[in-house]
Amino acid sequence: MTLSDQTPTRRVAIVTGAAQGIGRAISLRLATEGFEVALADLSTSSDKLQEVSRDIKKIGGRSVTIPTDVTVEAEVYALVSKTVEELGRLDVMVANAGIAPVCPFLEMKPELLDKIFSVNVRGVFLCYQAAAKQMIKQGSGGRLIAACSTSGLRTGPNVSGYCASKFAVRALNQGAALEFGKYGITANVYCPTVVETDMWKNIDAEITSMQGIEAGTYTQKRRDVNPLGRNATPEDIAGMVAFLASKDASFVSGQAMQVTGGDWLS
Fold first, then answer.
1. 172: CB partners within 8 A, 6+ apart
2. Can you name one GO molecular function term for this protein (predicted)?
């Protein structure tokens, strides 16, 4: 039986990196779609997690907050077990947490590369593995969804470490799709273009500083070259995730779903 074959009275999703930006938007969107949501982020973001939880309550949804470092195996497995303990089951894992440092190749220290891979790759791996084990135990399928990027499809200057991590996420996702399909579990990643969040503001600041130009200039340049004349919003990405979590995506698996406004064509 797959997720699309059943009509559960309750559907439960985990969202990592849920305290702000894309993760916050995904959490709110899934709540509007009827999901009960386990909100996960670093303990330093606990106040912001509580704000998201309150916003979900305002729209009539239910959520729990579970501080989690996705690089720590025990914490990720505890995230899944606590979600099931509090909300009863797990149907969707959204491994959204990630970091995006900007650093020239020749200046990048191995420690920075290790940190990028620890969060972006190890974090997705652990979330997928822990969630899949629970979904297999439940026997009713599930959805694994992770944050990738157009940077997981092509590499750019000064972000080689980040791009390499997103290529790895795409490979992990394809492997999960191939291995877990027999359990009715799909696996897909979402690949946004520029999304105007606080994280992107930091990226813009670093890039414009390197180029010696005014902060915000690079962001505007990306708006100008997009066929739709704008960059993505967190809500744009949340819409794609909501689709991947829905019954309409029951036969979509192993894919890198682009959300680009047409600035990347394949």
1. 121, 124, 125, 128, 146
2. quinone binding
Q: Name the strand (E) or helix (H) holding 259.
A: strand 256-259
Residues annotated catalytic, as ranges: 162, 166
Nearest to 238 by CA among 197, 200, 185: 197
At 88, the amino acid letter reads G
Q: Under a CB-based contact definition with an 8 Å cutoff, are residues 131 and 80 in contact?
A: yes
> According to the model, what pLDDT value does residue 8 have?
55
Instruction: Return the pLDDT at 2.
Output: 45
| Rounded-to-integer distance, Cα 49 and Cα 55, Å | 10
**117, 134, 136, 115: which is closest to 125 by C-alpha?**
117
Taking the chain (266 residues) in runs of 10, the rounded mean pLDDT of each run is 52 98 98 98 97 98 98 98 98 98 97 98 99 98 98 95 98 98 98 95 92 94 96 98 98 98 87
- Exposed, middle or buried: residue 262 (CB in 10 Å: 0-12, 13-18, 19+)? exposed
DSSP designation for 208: H
